Amino acid sequence: MAHVIIGTGSYLPEQVQTNHDIEAMDNDWAPQPKGPATLHEWAVTKHGAVKRHRVSPGECNSDLAAQACRNALSDAGLDVKDIDLIVMGTCTADQRMSSGAGAVQAKIGSMAKFIQVDAACSGFVDALLVAEGMLSTGRYKTALVVAVDVTSAILDPQTFVPWTIFGDGAGAVVLQSRPSEYGIRGFATGSEGALGHYAQIRGGGSKLPFSEQVLRDRTQYVEFKFPLIHKWAIDHFVRGVRESTSAAGIELADVKWVIPHQASNNLMHQLSKRLSIPFDKFYMTYEQTGNTSAASVAIALDYANKANQLADGDWLVMPAAGTGLQWGAVAYRWFDYRAERSVSAD
């Protein structure tokens, strides 16, 4: 039994924030004496983002996820009652309790079993593999896999670098069990919790509950060790692609599209060189969306699908690496579910 995607969807908030908008914020940006004179020039040179989307006041994580789910269900031609499992990947749920996945279930009017995977960069890949495992039991038939992050909720407004990198958004797929040679054919995954301090939010949890001291020290915001994350991530992106394609029994030359976690344009160019895969095989949204954390692979997949870039039988590899530190990749053989639906209608 295989597990195939039969619908994709995504949602980006309407509010757009440009590099010029970030430069106008009260943060630590300063023109570089021997480098870029504007923040826009700096961002384009350093990582490649031109704009990204932000939630509006009153808009939250579950709103984005619910709309991405509705869009995926519409693409699949299914009703919410057809779903018996929801798996969501995120690190920025509406609240610590109850589950963000439960809020999504309620908003789309479902009674499906829900599971929340607490993950950032690898959130969609992890959620997809959890859903596959649940479908493999035979107890569930059709799953909504959604990944979403509202990173703007955890970024320190006084520090400009993360604001130029990260955006808000959600992506979803409908995954279904059926006899097929398509779908998830190989994967690789792993984690290194001892390196979790490379990207962490120290304040607000059970170890360091919210207090005046947390607010004074600004430890309610995410802290990054970007140089260390970058080196670790590129090594594990490479590992994920190689191991997942090997597990699927294919060569790198067989891959039609790499649909990666949108860490940055520059990092993906390095990955292209390390793997000797032409960069034009990388499906990128980063320039227009930034790094949407858990959602980025799912959003890029939906964009590629909506642009009719995915043909029946194409081999895709979807790698992710980052916060956690966690990494993973899925080798997937694309199933043209729209063509099947068309034949069934005839």
Descriptive account of the structure:
This protein is of the alpha/beta class. The protein folds into two domains: 2-181, Peroxisomal Thiolase, Chain A, domain 1 (3-Layer(aba) Sandwich), CATH 3.40.47; 184-345, Peroxisomal Thiolase, Chain A, domain 1. It contains twelve helices and 13 strands. It has helices spanning 19-23, 39-46, 61-76, 100-108, 123-136, 160-165, 212-217, 226-248, 265-275, 286-289, 296-306, 337-345; strands at 2-11, 15-18, 51-54, 85-90, 113-118, 142-150, 168-178, 183-191, 199-200, 223-224, 255-258, 315-322, 326-333. Strands 1-7-6-4-5 form a five-stranded mixed β-sheet, sandwiched between helices. The chain has a four-stranded mixed β-sheet with strand order 8-13-12-11, sandwiched between helices. A hairpin with a 3-residue loop joins β12 (315-322) and β13. α3 packs across α4 (100-108) and α8 (226-248) crosses α9 (265-275). The longest helix has 23 residues, at 226-248. It starts with a strand and ends with a helix. The mean pLDDT is 95.
